């Protein structure tokens, strides 16, 4: 144990005692504390050394009883725990921790699926259930429901992604909005259920999200107030028909008219999905390697990226969306979308394919890692209101900063109805410390510049949580701290998550 990392504020004797007690609960093989066993938990794609956010150990319980016992030991010995579901929050910190030395509570072994209700289209999952596992489960029932998943779909979990308020690209793309009922464990051992889950023999836990009194689900997302041990989620009935379309525009300035046109189609329900709007940079990175198309220094010039996209029959902006419903509805939505998007200057490719938008699990999103190589990627995700002028202002500001830092400008936008999440991968080679430092400085500047321009972030990685939290004002920080002190007075759960500490 001589050279092992300690959790913050924990003595070597208490840490030894913690590990021993945990071994007695979960079995020695499920308590990892050697440098070699812990290293994968601290391996990140975000622009920090692995060591900066390295946990000291990982404990892997397989049931709620085991989780409760581990949390009791941690509370007694004041050892902080960082819960993860599948721990693959790649580009946002994976399974690393905000405060170095925090112990990962790896819930991957808790992977039961229960309470499937084919009439209501609902199901309950534990943290370790992956989208792939859930899809296979639904297949075995013989019912036809679709799932909505994020980019790395097959290998990540509905709970992890929903707690981060992640998004996908079907009509159920807002994952938190399609969750229904959490079971939560607090650091004092209390287990409770949100919504109508507290009613004895509840019939409606997965049917009605709001329950009675304050609706609490939201305070357990992007937070460290409790450990979510179960979650209900709604399943989308497979549509009778669907049609995937790519609309593309030739010029960066087209962002104004395209945003205004798409907003209208989203607000009146013609387009039911967020889809994805990609600039030339992100489309290029999804299919090519940088070295094949650009041998200069710094960021690839946008004109070059656009010229490459034109060769592929695409444009400066490329919006991939799917229409869903009965065949007659899909046809009439298509006619309407076509007329309005063409009027806004789009060229349309009517029969495209996007696996993620039609319930097909794929690992294609990982292709971005091939652009430069070396495993570095971090997501900077500012929110813009869905007005053309605001989108242009935000994206031009972002590009002026990425250009200056020599970072390739890429953006994949999720179009809500009123907000656009402009998710920008900053890609770099982790083997190149100068590049990593540049990406980190670029990210810090992006966050500050966005805030100065009135834009907030949708989500961030463990390396930048304090910075992002600090931009939301003192009252906001205080209220989170007061809730934290009430629900987790010793600060056992995920210190530093979203910048919240006791
Ligand atoms: P995924 O692998 O599904 O993308 P993760 O398991 O990496 O997601 O979780 C992302 C983040 O969400 C974690 O770092 C943690 O902050 C939070 N989180 C995940 N699972 C839980 C949980 N069961 N309870 C509380 N917080 C969680």
Which descriptors apply to this entry?
binds adenosine-5'-diphosphate; 502 residues; globular; single chain; alpha+beta
Task: Describe the structure in your own words.
This protein is of the alpha+beta class and 502 residues long. The chain is built from 14 helices and 19 strands. It has helices at 12-26, 35-42, 64-77, 131-141, 158-163, 255-267, 280-285, 290-293, 302-311, 327-343, 388-404, 433-452, 465-470, 474-487, and strands at 31-32, 58-59, 81-84, 103-106, 113-117, 122-125, 145-146, 179-185, 191-193, 227-234, 236-237, 241-249, 276-279, 317-325, 347-349, 375-380, 383-385, 412-415, 419-429. The strands form 4 sheets. Strands 12, 13, 14, 15, 16, 17, 18 and 19 form an 8-stranded antiparallel β-sheet that branches. It has a 5-stranded antiparallel β-sheet with strand order 5-6-10-8-9. It has a 4-stranded mixed β-sheet with strand order 1-2-4-3. β5 (113-117) and β6 form a beta hairpin. α6 (255-267) packs across α11 (388-404). The two termini are 29 Å apart.
In a nutshell, what does this entry contain?
The protein has helices at about 10-25, 35-40, 65-75, 130-140, 160-165, 255-265, 280-285, 290-295, 300-310, 325-345, 390-405, 435-450, 465-470, 475-485, and strands spanning about 30, 60, 80-85, 105, 115, 120-125, 145, 180-185, 190-195, 225-235, 235, 240-250, 275-280, 315-325, 345-350, 375-380, 385, 410-415, 420-430.
Give the structural class.
alpha+beta
Biggest beta-sheet profile: 8 strands, antiparallel
Could you tell me the mean pLDDT?
Answer: 97
Find the count of extended strands (DSSP E, 2+ residues). 19
- Beta-strand percent range: 15-25%
| General shape | globular
Q: Write out the distinct hetero groups bound to the structure.
A: adenosine-5'-diphosphate
Q: Which blocks of ≥5 consecutive residues have pLDDT under 50?
A: none
Rg value: 23 Å
**Tally of contiguous helical segments:** 14
- Report the helical percentage: 25-40%
Distance between the termini: 29 Å
């Amino acid at each position: 144990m001589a050279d092992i990392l300690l959790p913050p504020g924990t003595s070597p004797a208490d840490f030894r005692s913690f590990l021993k007690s945990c071994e007695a609960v979960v079995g020695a093989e499920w308590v990892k504390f050697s440098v070699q066993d812990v290293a994968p938990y601290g391996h990140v794609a975000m622009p920090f050394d692995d060591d900066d956010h390295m946990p000291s150990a990982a404990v892997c319980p397989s049931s709620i009883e085991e989780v409760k016992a581990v949390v009791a030991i941690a509370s007694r010995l004041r050892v902080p725990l960082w819960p993860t579901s599948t721990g693959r929050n790649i580009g946002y910190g994976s399974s690393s921790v905000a405060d170095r030395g925090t112990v990962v509570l790896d819930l991957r072994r808790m992977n039961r699926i229960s309470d499937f209700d084919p009439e209501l289209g609902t199901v309950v999952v534990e943290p370790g259930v992956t989208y792939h596992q859930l899809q296979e489960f639904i297949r075995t029932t013989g019912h036809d429901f679709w799932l909505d998943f994020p980019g790395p779909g097959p290998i990540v979990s509905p709970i992890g992604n929903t707690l981060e308020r992640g998004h996908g690209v079907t009509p159920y793309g807002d994952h938190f909005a399609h969750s229904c009922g959490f079971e939560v464990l607090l650091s004092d051992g209390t287990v409770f259920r949100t919504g109508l889950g507290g009613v004895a023999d509840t019939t409606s836990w997965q049917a009605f999200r709001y329950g009675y009194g304050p609706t609490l689900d939201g305070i357990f997302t992007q937070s460290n107030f409790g450990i979510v041990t179960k979650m209900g989620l709604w399943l989308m009935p497979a549509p009778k028909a669907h049609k995937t379309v790519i609309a593309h525009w030739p010029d960066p300035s087209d962002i104004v008219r395209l945003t205004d046109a798409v907003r209208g189609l989203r607000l009146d329900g013609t387009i039911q999905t967020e889809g994805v709007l990609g600039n030339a940079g992100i489309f290029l990175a999804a299919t090519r390697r940088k070295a094949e198309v650009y041998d200069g220094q710094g960021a690839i010039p946008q004109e070059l990226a656009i010229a490459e996209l034109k060769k592929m029959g695409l444009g400066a902006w490329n919006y991939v969306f799917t229409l869903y419903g009965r065949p007659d509805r899909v046809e009439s939505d298509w006619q309407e979308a076509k007329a309005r998007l063409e009027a806004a200057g789009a060229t349309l490719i009517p029969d495209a394919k996007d696996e993620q938008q039609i319930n097909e699990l794929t690992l294609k999103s990982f292709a971005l890692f091939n652009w430069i190589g070396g495993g570095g990627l971090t997501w900077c995700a500012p929110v813009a209101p869905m007005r053309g002028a605001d989108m242009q202002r935000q994206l031009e500001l972002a590009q002026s900063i990425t250009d200056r830092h020599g970072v390739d400008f890429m953006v994949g936008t999720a179009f809500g109805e009123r907000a656009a999440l402009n998710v920008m991968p900053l890609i770099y080679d982790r083997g190149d410390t100068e590049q990593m430092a540049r990406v980190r400085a670029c990210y810090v500047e992006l966050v500050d510049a966005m805030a100065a321009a009135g834009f907030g972030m949708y989500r961030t990685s463990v390396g930048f949580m304090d910075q992002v939290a600090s931009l939301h004002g003192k009252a906001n920080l205080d209220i989170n701290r007061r809730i934290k002190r009430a629900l987790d007075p010793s600060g056992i759960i995920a210190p530093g998550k979203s910048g919240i500490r006791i």
